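Protein modeling request. Please complete all fields; requests missing the sequence field cannot be processed.
Requester role: graduate student
Desired output: 3D structure, token encoding
Chains: 1
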Amino acid sequence: MNDKETRVNLKTKRYQWTLFAIFLSLGFAAPGCSSQQSQAEKNADTADVKTTGAAERAADVPAAQVTAQTAAPAETKKTVAQPVSQGGVFKGFKVYTDGNSPDNPFIPSGWLGDYGDIKFDDKCLTNPHSGTTSIKITYTAQATQGARWAGIYWQNPPNNWGTRPGGYDLSGAKKLTFWARGENGGERIEEFKIGGITGEYADSDVAGIGPVVLTTEWQQFTIDLEGKDLSSISGGFCWGTNLDVNPKGCTFYLDDIKFE
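Delivered output (260 residues):
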């Protein structure tokens, strides 16, 4: 064998060993990639929320999961939310109008505390403030999960506790207004608020009012948003109350929730 043939053979062997090394690295890496993809798909499936009824949405949010998801991590990422303003001008943004309206971009998916004590009907036909329906909420104060309080977050995306980018850029909004009434009068809601979701993709700010004592008549309430950073809001609306101020439970109604 001459020197030329020897050099060719050596090059061929080095090329074969290189291909073999690449094959081995791909073979060992593939299971990990497959696992990550499978886990991502599982996470996506877990995050999906049924939209056929509020009770079904509640079942997707166990209390233990809520507690874990609301804990803030060490670092918060900046997320780019969907802009709402048109041509730099904020013209309003609705959270709830009617139960069947397509203009309800936030979903009441974040059931908190004693979520088993909540009954929710966003298509209640009894005496709405406007349109054909309002939201009827009953809190039974049974402490089903032992928390002694309960509440609901309207979220985008559904079930987003700061673990995914999303929400809306509501810059330019000056206030959030909503209408509320009680079934019997005297119902006390400890807090109504927007924003405040923590986590890797946290809301950019928080604002609220409370406590609020309701009457049997519809009343309009306002959350002042002047000076607030509304560039990324996943928690579009929230209410919370507890057993101590409603020992026998309470039923109340909400309607026409919107940013102005």
